[in-house]
Amino acid sequence: MTTSIDVSLGQVAAALTLVALAAAISFWRRTDLERDIVVATVRSFVQLTAIGYAIKLIFEADTIWLVVALLSAMVLFGAITARSRAKKVPGAFWPLLIGLAIAAASTLGLVVALGIFEATPRYLVPVGGMMIGNAMTASAVALNRLGDEVADSRARIEATLALGATAREAAAPFVRRALRSGTIALIDSTKTTGLIFFPGTMVGMLLAGAEPTDAVRLQLILLYALLGSTAIAALVATGLAYRNFFTPAQQLRELGNEAAA
Amino acid sequence: MLFELRDVSLARGGRQVLGSVNADLHAGATAIVGPSGSGKSTLLRLLNRLADPDFGAITYRDLPLVEYDPLKLRREVSLVPQLPSLLEGTVGSNLRYAADLAGKELEPERCLGLAGLDAAFEERDVSRLSVGEQQRAMLARALAQQPRVLLLDEPTSALDHAARDAIEATLAQLQQELEISLVVVGHDPEQARRLTDRALRLQKGRVVACGPLEEALA
Questions:
Q1: pLDDT tens profile B108-167
Q2: Residues from chain A contacting residue B111 (CB–CB below 8 Å)
Q3: B residues 20-49 closer than 8 Å to A (CB)
Q4: Residue of A nearest to B13 (CA)
Q5: How far is residue B154's CA from residue B82's CA, in Å, rounded to a whole number?
Q6: How many domains does chain B have?
Q7: What pTM was estimated for this model as a whole?
Q8: Which CATH number is B151's domain given?
């Protein structure tokens, strides 16, 4: 079994044809996304090339501390990125940062402790990156929904507080819906995996020449780990973030520009 | 004294909502009247600490409001907001929720009856109620906590005359038989005359008059 594949820059450049197609469709249908498509293409090239060299260095150095540093940086940038999706949630950065850090640490720790992967850079870097990326998306969606729910339901929350309910009790239905929003997308895609789409890891392994059964098993492990990491990240982020809507006296904060700060 | 307000001020979004409010609210029934935007509802929210003033002090039964546990205070001083905001589920589940929070035994038929709703409403889903029915269910929910004070924000604004008269009769009964004190926000001086014996009149966030009803409404 061979697991290596040579991809030239020429092949990468050829794939840009499809980007041009996407831009053309945007221009034709006036969706005004051409600029975003160009930015996304350039950013993906620069970021992935940079991370490719960084990973190469980390693999060659073969030290766990560089892995920790890289994953920590990913958690930090993940929290900063997700915060921009949660503008209606005051102080969203820390809940997101803590959620991503706990999700990454606990799921990676668990897959290593269970003997699924070795604690080496070759496994921890790609798996950790995947966990953090998906956890970021899930927690951003969850907090975005939480912000909308609280903004739309202020009267109901205050009416519940007026009965002497705690902030936690008053926010519970909205936190529940936010958590569901954050995790449902991955659950649904996991349900349909193999039927209507092939997940990325499996595709990559098949393209690299791996045995299909090996590709499937690795993909299953990653899907199961992703379910855990997204649930943990969304749970921690929503569980911490809802508190920022309330004062210590269990009052719903007046939010103006404060939320965006 | 039920509530004493001393130099109470509050600003929101750069606008002064209440300015140096001084008032004594006695046990019994007091109306808070004034035009829209005069700060009536805001003042009501301060009385069970859904908000705190920026400056000044409020006492409840001679103790500073901030010294009360806000959760216990709100179960004793129950606010019924103008816009009905029931929890998802049935009217009965809303009543149980409120009674459980206050640690009280629930008598659903009695609470519903006092609010002018028959017992069948216990099983009704709140999403199927009219606004007027929701407003009465909100009152029933507050009564399920057996409060000592009811803060009512325009309690009959969505009701027709017959329903309004029934609610007013209930409020009078609550005050006389159960010795529940009422603080009622409203626009209608006639309703204030029917329900209360004292009034606080606000204009642009400031006290214009406070005292016996006819004196304050004059």
A1: 999 999 888 999 999 999 999 988 889 889 999 999 999 999 999 988 887 788 888 888
A2: none
A3: 48-49
A4: A256
A5: 6
A6: 1
A7: 0.85
A8: 3.40.50.300
